[in-house]
Specification:
The protein is built from eight helices and ten strands. With 353 residues, it is α+β, with helices and mostly antiparallel strands. About 23% of the residues have low confidence.
Length: 353
């Protein structure tokens, strides 16, 4: 009996130590997950706020975050109309006396890196942006797209009326690399797109210049938005967050089910030069490097149709949507680790209507 008691006394400290180690290990694993979740929530909220702002600015002409005076050219038309409707000074209607119209300075989200959806090497995280500025500020190692003799991503004199509701001119003010706004109705895809070959930067930074796990949707500079070209390709991360849901290009993976496609076959893309409505015609899984879905230019109609037929042949299902040599297409590209680990890609291709 005494031997058994001594054995139990020796075993008890070992069991306790093991339990403490297991608990400590669990905390070590859980805490980073919770921190990641919080960071993604903050970054998702920033994008949601951006979408709300540019749509509000588009509909009202008021720029949130700026002090407005009655002389502002941007407000002159709406203020004049209001003032002549009810003989009340229009500026007082927009901003009653003593109202503080200065927005609070946004808070930067913590930084975290992410894998490269385009199959490019991800650079080390860059220093965080100065959050005291409300507009985009270029980070070390990144310069906004500038064409010789032109302003960054030079826009046309007039911006085409769009379907996304985003004020494209305001978006370009916030980031000179801005080129388009992408929206897929019925999903969380409602984001700005930049035109840049600085993929290392935009894989790890938000549209406003902060370090970000979500990154920014981007097109390579070979993409012709201005003409526009026959194939506009856009890259993006896919992120799932327990609190914020499917973010960036994560909803694209749902297109692997035909039932999802049937309810979400329409895509809107408003660029600085062109506004388009697209219908999905193919959904493709592939391994990085076996086919280039971002091909931007084609030597002939035959080459273009060969590209289209390649996409249709690889498609997970037949959509029945026709594409002709006279059409233009939109290609959305993201990772799909469920298909081929780090080399897996999911491609959603749509034809302009």
């Amino acid at each position: 009996m005494r031997r058994n008691n001594r054995k139990h006394r020796k075993t008890w400290p070992v069991v306790t130590a093991a339990a403490v180690l297991i608990l400590a290990g669990g905390i070590t694993v859980i805490v980073p997950i919770l921190e990641d979740d919080q960071e993604i929530m903050e970054e998702a909220a920033e994008y949601a706020d951006l979408a709300d702002r540019v749509q509000q600015e588009h509909s009202t002409g008021v720029l949130p975050g700026f002090t407005v005076s009655p002389q502002d050219d941007l407000l002159s038309a709406i203020l004049y109309e209001q003032e002549h409707e009810n003989n009340t000074p229009a500026y007082e209607q927009v901003h009653p006396p003593n109202e503080d119209v200065t927005a609070a300075t946004p808070t930067a989200a913590p930084a975290i890196s992410e894998n490269d959806p385009a199959g490019l090497n991800t650079a080390a995280p860059q220093p965080a942006a100065d959050t005291s500025a409300q507009h985009f500020t270029a980070q070390p190692g990144h310069q906004p797209t500038v064409k010789p003799g032109a302003s960054p991503t030079a826009a046309p004199t007039t911006t085409p009326a769009g379907n996304t509701g985003a004020d494209l001119a305001v978006c370009q003010e916030k980031n000179p690399d801005f080129v388009a706004w992408l929206k897929i109705p019925g999903t969380n895809v409602n984001y700005p797109v930049v035109l840049s070959d600085d993929t290392d930067y935009y894989l790890t930074h938000s549209f406003t210049g902060k370090q970000s796990k979500l990154g920014t949707l981007f097109s390579l500079k070979k993409t012709d938005y201005e003409t526009p070209g026959r194939n506009i390709a856009i890259y993006g991360h896919h992120i799932t967050n327990t609190s914020s849901g499917e973010l960036m290009f994560r909803p694209l993976l749902s297109y692997k089910k035909q039932s999802f496609y049937e309810k979400h076959s329409t895509i809107y893309l408003d660029s600085l030069y062109h506004t388009g409505i697209y219908k999905v015609f193919a959904v493709v899984n592939l391994v990085k490097g076996e086919w280039d879905p971002s091909t931007a230019s084609f030597a002939s109609d035959a080459d273009f149709m060969a590209f289209v037929l390649q996409a249709r042949a690889r498609s997970l299902y037949d959509t029945g949507v026709e594409v002709t040599a006279a059409d233009r297409i939109l290609t959305l590209i993201t990772c799909d680790r469920s298909y081929a680990a780090a080399d897996g890609r999911l491609i959603v291709l749509a034809v302009e209507q």
